[in-house]
Amino acid sequence: MILIRIGEKIISRAKIEDALQQILELRAAGFSQQEVAGRLGLDRTFISRLETLGEVRKGKRLAVIGFPLRNKEEIGAVAGSRGVEFTWLMDEKERWELVRGQSAIDFFNLVMEKITVLQHFDVIIIIGSRKWFKIAEALLDGQVLFLELGSSPITEDCILDPQCFASVLDQVMAQTPRDKNI
């Protein structure tokens, strides 16, 4: 247990971290700021200020799926820096390992699991070939945007310009574009 002296007080860092964790879990579960404050004996404004302190961004829930990407780490870093909540990026080798590395039923279950997760997002950006864009558009409820890496079938890793990708994310977060092909 880490104890910190502040003037006359001895403060338990673990106690603060536990309370913070509980606040965030209750808020994420859908409790209002007032309800959380009441349960924990805090002021509602304290809950609000904590949320403001940790806020990355407001707005739409955003997911990004892309393959085959040679610079997936760089694209993932851009997505992470912009507060993208779900990112699934693969290079060509990983894509084939995913398909070949399991039975057809296991692969199908994985795909269905990913689709279920993606149903909760407002905007899904697909990076790949037009074929995958059409499939995603048919299966997903959210707005599907498309960044084309090449014509289907793409058999080699492609590079997506990170600055272009960052610009697209910034546009999506600022407003919902009418054009699905940014």
Topology:
Elements: E1 3-6, E2 9-12, H1 13-28, H2 33-40, H3 44-54, E3 62-66, H4 72-81, E4 86-89, H5 92-100, H6 104-118, E5 123-128, H7 130-139, E6 143-148, H8 162-174
Parallel strand pairs: 3-4, 3-5, 5-6
Antiparallel strand pairs: 1-2
Helix pairs in contact: 1-2, 2-3, 4-8
Task: Summarize the structure in words.
- The protein has 182 residues and is α/β, with parallel strands linked by helices.
- The chain has eight helices and six strands.
- It has helices spanning 13-28, 33-40, 44-54, 72-81, 92-100, 104-118, 130-139, 162-174; strands at 3-6, 9-12, 62-66, 86-89, 123-128, 143-148.
- The strands form two sheets. The chain has a four-stranded parallel β-sheet with strand order 4-3-5-6, with helices on both faces. A two-stranded antiparallel sheet has the order 1-2.
- Strand 1 and strand 2 form a beta hairpin.
- Helix 2 (33-40) packs across helix 3.
- The longest helix has 16 residues, at 13-28.
